[in-house]
Each structure stands twice: as C-alpha cells, then as structure tokens.
Design goal:
There is one protein chain. Helices cover 16% and strands 45% of the residues. The chain is an alpha+beta fold. A 6-stranded antiparallel sheet has the order 3-4-5-2-1-6. A 6-stranded mixed sheet has the order 10-9-8-7-12-11, with no helix packed on it. A hairpin with a 4-residue loop joins strand 1 and strand 2. The longest helix is centred in the first third of the chain and has 19 residues.
Length: 192
C-alpha cells in the first residue's frame, strides 16, 4: 500500500470535498423565469413551509465546489413545491435566464431552519436503524412518486433503501432516527 505524499494529497482532497458538500445541501433547482422583471421559479423539496418567505440567500455552485451566494429581494409562495423568487441584480427575464436550470443550495444550518418537518429531505443526517442494528447515516434522499429512496453508507458502501408504508416503522425526530423493516436479502446485495 502506498502511503506517500500522493496518497496524503488524495485523502486531503477527498476529505475536503466531503466537508464542503456536508456544509451545503441541495434543496432544488431554478426551473424557469417568471414574468418580465427577472423573477425565477424555484422548484424545491423543503415541503410546505411558510417560513420560506423569510429566506434571504441561496447558493449556486458556479464552479466545482465553489458556492456563490445570491441574495433574495422577494419570495412569493406559488405552491408546496414552487416559489417565485426575485434575486438581487436580475431585473429582466433575459438576465434571469443565466440562473436556470441551476441547482440551488443552502448552508446546512440554514437548511434545518427552513425544511418542513414532514418533507422527506428533512431526514438527511438521520441514522437508519433496523431492530437494534445501526445501518448508517442517511446521506441522500431521492423522491419518487410512490416511495422515497434513502442512500446510506452501509459497511463502507452506498446502499439504496426504499421508504414506503411497508418498510418504514417509525421516525424519531428528537433522536434523529429512522426505524425500518427491510426485505430479507436487501442489504446483502451491497456487501457482496
């Protein structure tokens, strides 16, 4: 095993990337312009949360791992999943087009303030448990029409765990635990 300078540099860059990505959480995407005054539609996964009207900054990853803040002048709630956002410095429809389709991120501490309690993305960072076994931390949420897929690190490998009415036993928001009952053999797929 090589433990020289190249290994150290590679580990440092991988660890730095992990830390940067843990600092920011993707909440949605600018999907279209709205009107003629430079407003954008932000499709998000934060749930139906009235506090979103108080959001004053979002981040866009302009370059790899380089998040740039965009300050918000005004937010109008359109529906549970969409906001109409007026970003500072964008006065026309044409200028606002530069921001879509771009992913939108929040700093992790802001994310916890604005995520709705019932939004699946709010489970990020929770521990997944089956019986007495700690399966791993939820590191990604993928929403699908009839279920939610959670990515966890299980024995050093990424594993996709479906959450639906048959597999979800309960959620303890205070302890940040998601209890599941998994089909036989599901986890073995990721360890062989």
């Amino acid at each position: 095993m090589n433990s020289g300078p190249a290994f150290g540099r590679t580990f440092f860059y991988a660890f730095s990337y992990y830390c940067i990505m843990q600092e920011y959480i993707k909440i949605g995407r600018f999907v279209a312009t709205h009107g003629l005054q430079g407003e954008l539609i932000l499709h998000h996964s934060l749930g139906d949360n009235k506090k979103l009207k108080d959001l004053n900054v979002v981040f866009i990853e302009e370059l790899s791992k380089s998040f740039i803040p965009y300050f918000i002048e005004k937010i109008t709630l359109k529906n549970e999943e969409d906001l109409i956002v007026k970003v500072e410095g964008f006065q026309t429809k044409e200028s606002a087009r530069k921001l879509f389709p771009k992913d939108v991120w929040l700093k992790s501490e802001m994310f916890r303030e604005f995520v709705g309690k019932s939004a699946p993305i709010g489970l990020l960072g929770y521990m997944m448990v089956e019986g007495k076994e700690n399966l791993g931390e939820i590191i990604e949420i993928i929403e699908q029409p009839h279920q939610v897929l959670c990515t966890i690190l299980y024995k050093g490998k990424e594993a996709l765990i479906p959450l639906h009415e048959e597999s979800l036993k309960g959620i303890d928001h205070r302890k940040k635990i998601v209890e599941v009952i998994l089909p036989d053999g599901l986890l073995e797929v990721y360890t062989t």
